[in-house]
Write a structure and sequence with these properties.
66% of the residues lie in helices and 12% in strands. By secondary structure, it is of the alpha/beta class. The chain folds into two domains: 244 residues, 2-Layer Sandwich (Beta Polymerase, domain 2), CATH 3.30.460; 60 residues, no CATH class. The chain has a six-stranded mixed beta sheet.
Length: 320
């Protein structure tokens, strides 16, 4: 198979004339490039229009002996929380004689596949090359899922250690990311579940193409299941965050209640001695030491007794 990364009219006409299978991979093509490619390969005007505007939902449109397959690929970036564009829209034009892929930005997974196919000397069937391109795009989600698994584990540990506002912001960021990924993967899964046979029916592809596309469908099912499980884990992180915050508020409330309870008898004693001070000086408090013993001593004794009672009940320590 020939792998091409730019529009070469003479070479493309020669390969089409000789019926040799090729893959044309274009990064950031201009509108004129797409129109010219449509004229060169006989693409349907509606398909060309979709590729000019992009922003398409994953879908499969068949036009005679050619098809336009719109897919979303995953773009991994380190650190993951700075990955503002986790998806790359890729348009695949499929025929029994060639594959054309269009994407706005560089897509590393397709570049790696191009290098592998250029270095491979073994000849494969046309449906195998179609499968490899589609499979590379679909499998680009797995590194993102692996990163998400680690992020969610770290997030759970951070929440248990001490829930802070930063963890709440991380929860919302992961929720938005999972929603974007699911909106991209589920339509692709539906396409291969209902319409994959239309790709198989293209002239030049053999019947065993169904086996290849069944493998792609299985990968999409696995990705969807993992996204659903991560969504449940994020929901659990939200519950854990709220529970941790509530427990911390309960701990603070308990401490404030203990302090208020300790000061309750102290307020009573100071009020009692304050309102009866003259009578106490004339009849009870005969000297400074007796004042210290009855006044401060009773206050310390009551505070110590209450603290001992709280400690015995287990209210003064953390629930470790």
């Amino acid at each position: 198979m020939h792998v091409i990364d730019r529009i070469d009219d003479a070479r493309l006409r020669d390969l089409c004339g000789r019926g040799e299978f090729f893959w044309l991979d274009l990064t950031t093509p201009s509108d004129d490039d797409i129109r010219h490619l449509g004229e060169l390969l006989g693409l349907h005007p509606l398909a060309v229009e979709d590729s000019i505007h992009f922003g398409q939902r994953p879908k499969l449109d068949v036009y005679g002996d050619k098809a336009l397959l719109v897919l979303q690929g995953g773009r991994e970036q380190k650190p993951e929380d700075e990955n503002e564009q986790p998806l790359e829209e890729i348009h695949l034009y499929l025929s029994g004689d060639w594959i054309v892929t269009l994407h706005r930005d560089r897509f590393d997974d397709l570049e790696r596949l191009r290098s592998q196919l250029e270095q491979s000397a073994a000849a494969k069937s046309e449906q195998y090359y179609v499968y490899k391109v589609v499979d590379a795009i679909v499998d680009s989600f797995f590194p993102i899922l692996a990163d998400l698994d680690e992020e969610i584990d770290d997030l759970e540990d951070a929440i248990v250690a001490g829930a802070k506002r930063r963890q709440l912001e991380e929860i919302f960021r992961l929720k938005r990311l999972l929603l974007r990924l699911r909106k991209a993967v589920v339509p692709m899964r539906d396409v291969f579940a209902r319409e994959a046979d239309q790709i198989v029916d293209l002239a030049g592809l053999e019947a065993d193409s169904r086996d290849y596309f069944r493998d792609v469908y299985d990968h999409l099912i696995r990705i969807t299941d993992e996204l659903d499980s991560y969504q449940e884990m994020i929901t659990s992180c939200t519950d854990l965050y709220l529970s941790t915050v509530a427990n911390r508020q309960g701990e603070v409330s308990k401490q404030l209640t203990i302090v208020a309870s300790v000061f309750l008898p102290l307020s009573f004693l100071t009020g009692f001695f304050g309102m009866n001070f003259d009578w106490e000086v004339d009849h009870v408090l005969k000297g400074p030491w007796l004042f210290l013993f009855l006044g401060l001593g009773s206050m310390l004794l009551s505070a110590g007794a209450m603290w001992w009672w709280f400690h015995r009940k287990g209210w003064t320590g953390r629930d470790d």
